Amino acid sequence: DTAVSQTPKYLVTQMGNDKSIKCEQNLGHDTMYWYKQDSKKFLKIMFSYNNKELIINETVPNRFSPKSPDKAHLNLHINSLELGDSAVYFCASSHSAPLAGEQYFGPGTRLTVT
Amino acid sequence: DQQVKQNSPSLSVQEGRISILNCDYTNSMFDYFLWYKKYPAEGPTFLISISSIKDKNEDGRFTVFLNKSAKHLSLHIVPSQPGDSAVYFCAASATGGTSYGKLTFGQGTILTVHP
Questions:
Q1: Count of CA atoms in the C-beta half-sphere (13 A) of B53
Q2: Rounded Cα–Cα distance for residues B36 and B48 (Å)
Q3: Is A107 on the interface with B (CB under 8 A)?
Q4: CB of A6 within 8 A of CB of A21?
Q5: Considering chain B, what percentage of its residues have pLDDT values greater than 70?
Q6: What would the pLDDT profile of A47-105 be if each residue is shown by its tens digit?
Q7: Residue A54 to chain B, least CA–CA distance (Å)
Q8: Please, which residues bridge with residue A114 across strands?
Q9: Do B18 and B24 meet the contact criterion of CB atoms below 8 Å apart?
Q10: Does A56 contact chain B (CB < 8 Å)?
Q11: Are B91 and B106 in contact (CB under 8 A)?
């Protein structure tokens, strides 16, 4: 009965590989997000989808590609992984405005690129 | 470039006393502010929010104050409890158009409440 779940929780991989992180929410929300928390602990938004439509796309390398098969899922695919991609990635979900600021976060996926 | 700042990396408080966490912002377009709490190995959890049309919002032991002229907000926890020990993130949003859900976070303040 987890509200927002992410898999895997930990991901260790080598430079140049391609990997995916999956996110699912069972809250009935229609907006989902991906955030990156870097080594300085800043949480920065990467993408946001509303009803499977991309609405926020921050300055993120195009090696990162989100995919939303339905409004309960938002997956993140990363091509050609680089050392700087090492971070904790959080998925979140919310209702649409005016409650979009109140976001529910998953537990995070710690990605380590070696 | 850092539009939301939490200048105190950590705060230590005795159980039962008040905890005051501070946050400053620079973007005058921000009109909706939130506080999130984060325990280790978990995602952030929404705590309390305030719209720029208010200067105070209270929810139980938690009160958020907003000073728009100073571009400053604070979170007061009274009384503090050991279970409040966590990282607290301030976040801000500009509610116009599709940017409503775009939160800009501060770097967090580690609160430790001692028994």
A1: 1
A2: 7
A3: yes
A4: yes
A5: 96
A6: 998 888 888 888 788 999 999 999 899 999 999 999 999 999 999 999 877 667 789 99
A7: 10
A8: none
A9: no
A10: yes
A11: yes
